[in-house]
Design a protein that fits this description.
By secondary structure, the protein is α/β, with parallel strands linked by helices. The radius of gyration is 20 Å and the shape is globular. It contains ten helices and twelve strands.
Amino acid sequence: MPDKNSAGCGSQELCIALDLGGTNIAAALVDASGRMVCCKKTRTQAHRGAQAVVADLVSLAIECSSEASRLGAIVRGVGIGSAGQIDPESGVVVSATDNLPGFSGLRLRDIVADATGLETYVDNDANAAALGEAWVGAAKGCNNLVCLTLGTGVGGGIIANGSLVHGIRGCGGELGHMSINFDGPECNCGSRGCLESYVSTWAVEKRIKALALMRGGSWKAIYNATGGAVKGLFDAARDGDQEAIELADEVGRHLGFGVASLANALAPQMVVLGGGISQAGEILFSAVRKGFRERALLPLRDAVQIVPAKLGEYSVVVGAAALVWRNGCAASSD
């Protein structure tokens, strides 16, 4: 986790980094080494509409700007990691998720730039997470990597030769919607057999709920576990529940199959797994590596590193800061 310390900035150069998610909005001041100086959060309250959410986002950015002034620091720009498919060239939200209704077509970059008077850069939140991990996280110094964010959905970011892969209209890196089974379960995107339909929080919880209704017993306890059903599953597996071990292994192996497909196509040096499910630890990662070895090309089986993310809840914020320092302020970070 980045060091958060608001003391002694002097004439330091900082940027404002924003993480716009469906649940929370986070804002931070981040220096050119990736160190967070302060961090502020608020609930997204998407039910209030896009205009109200953006107003809250801008308000946090302005609070950070005021804090920088108080510290005598120079603010060099604003970086935003946002949920949804983002066109980084125009700063427009091409397609919003259901968690941010009304955001499709929103000119997010221009709105924030006009409100703050600062150069602003916007990218998808999973892309930002990949940048953050490559900058100061688990993949520091790695120029070829894939980052998967395992949460309610499955986000992805690809960095090739040091640059993010955006594809047309910023829609590259939707790795959760890579199909690993052509007649598999229906996904929220309308397709079938997507990686997300096997390893996302919603997919695993759906499976646990079905088992709780059919079998009861320990599955009912797992479904109602403190911290959520997914945490309950991996906790039960660690405690030796054989049925929980089997399902946890299945989730991990499916994730490993997806990672193998990505590795076979991209041959990254490293695959970084972040988000809530990744916090299950070695009981997940051992199954992922097993699935990976079953499906990866022989030369890649021992060459591709599969590691947990390091930055945790701050990966998007730190990656949003990287957008500023990489795109607009390279000279300032030398």
